[in-house]
Design brief:
With 399 residues, the chain is of the alpha/beta class. The longest helix has 22 residues. 48% of the residues are buried. The chain has two domains: 138 residues, Aspartate Aminotransferase, domain 1 (Alpha-Beta Complex), CATH 3.90.1150.10; 234 residues, Aspartate Aminotransferase, domain 2. It starts with 8 loop residues before the first strand and ends with a helix.
Length: 399
Amino acid sequence: MSLAHGRSYLAIPGPSVMPDRVLNAMHVAAPNIYEGDLVEMVAGLVPDLKAAARTDGHVAIYIANGHGAWEAALSNVLSRGDKVLVLATGSFGHGWGEMARALGAEVEVMDFGNRAPIDMGQVEARLRQDTARDIRAVMAVHVDTATSIRNDIGALRNAMDAAGHPALLMADCIASLGCDRFEMDDWGVDVMVTASQKGLMTPPGMAFVFFSDIAAEAREHADCVSAYWDWKPRAAPQHFYQYFGGTAPTHHLLGLRAALDLIAEEGGMDAVWARHDRLAHAIWAAFDAWGADGPLELNVADPVHRSRAVTAVRVGAPHGTALREWVEARAGVTLGIGLGMADPDDPAWHGFFRVGHMGHVNAHMVLGVLGVIEAGLQAIDLPHGTGGLAAAARVISAA
């Protein structure tokens, strides 16, 4: 018998759960794209987006997903043949590096594996070796959605400064913005990319590139940039359509306005980060209890290096796939696949899953997902410790 009938729950690391207010804001007739409310609303979105990124710099809006943000950011600061240093802690670091390679950059990858964060000492040593200053940019993913590793971007800036290296610091915050603390200006980030469908609680389809004055200067010497990806008219438009390189993504903008209003009403970014932090700790407490007996373990051992937006879990094949299939078919909860942990043709691929807890999530949502996972562990007869749901409840009750 299935108990999945009713409203399904998407507990994957993006697209995240869309608030009803966002969906309702989008459920209107198409607005005027030439004058009036929409034009005035977009001008107000820009400072709120900057507040979410904690920057006084610039922002360009694109009709794209995160991959589009990757290309937009790279094309505005690189010329063909430029060298970039990619610091990979999962699939998405490698993916951004491949995008740079496709644009004609020379890409060097420092791979720190799927379970550990960036080693800042190694990065500093590598940058000190670059006496010719050939490396034009250092690229890092703040939270790799595949591994749930959270990298210390402020410490990365310190390592670059200690090496005296002038490379641009570029950060991917697609999974983390609006979930994990991120301070663009205070951490000295030159370029940051994100997208609408995770912490910003809006359907996939919009991407954002935030950039500093130093990065804006680099744009003047970049030969990879094309007319569509050029961030100059988008960040300082003379006409409304230039924000988007053409027709505005009208209903996405209406949804984003509602999402940013929700963030403001909660108390701003500090309150949003605190909520994500407490809910993440509740999830970790549950998995720690379940992992006391049997094969289940969190991918990232040290909580300091765990994302507050997504949690990657190792459970051994074929249990990851078995659990995902049971909770979706029998209880209406969709968990994320174990992306990039093994080749899809390798039986080991079935030994992983991920839980998304980003954006529009609260205590009863998290406890509901954990309760279903606990039921699923019992249903597939996977050995596990007891008291996972109770452990999570204790964390939440202390809030």
